[in-house]
TrEMBL record:
This is Uncharacterized protein. It comes from Pegethrix bostrychoides GSE-TBD4-15B. It comes from the Bacteria.
Length: 101
């Protein structure tokens, strides 16, 4: 019988990955971390709403141009090209603009 202390660390790790419960645990841990990161990003983006004036200032344009273009089909692409962070914006009722997710 070989003592686990006699094995090199690489061999111990490779045997650990042969156990289904270890692989499932690693997968679930990675999934949890990714999901938590995704939720944090959604909270950060979802809480950002801007008025016409605020978005015009962010995009370096005027409120009048925003009002003229907000209903055009390529509005999100247009805002993305002007936004300093490349964020696409959409117009929602109530006169507010939100990031496109």
């Amino acid at each position: 019988m070989v003592n686990s202390l006699d094995r090199p660390p690489a061999a111990a790790n490779s045997e650990l990955l042969k156990r289904p419960e270890a692989v499932i645990f690693i997968f679930l841990a990675a999934l949890f971390v990714l999901w938590d990161t995704y939720l944090d990003l959604l909270d950060e983006v979802g809480s950002t709403t801007l008025s016409t004036r605020q978005l015009a200032q962010r995009l370096g344009t005027t409120a009048k141009i925003l009002r003229l273009r907000k209903r055009q089909p390529n509005f999100s692409d247009w805002t993305s090209s002007l936004d300093p962070d490349g964020i696409s914006w959409v117009y929602s009722s109530g006169g507010l603009y939100t990031p496109k997710i």
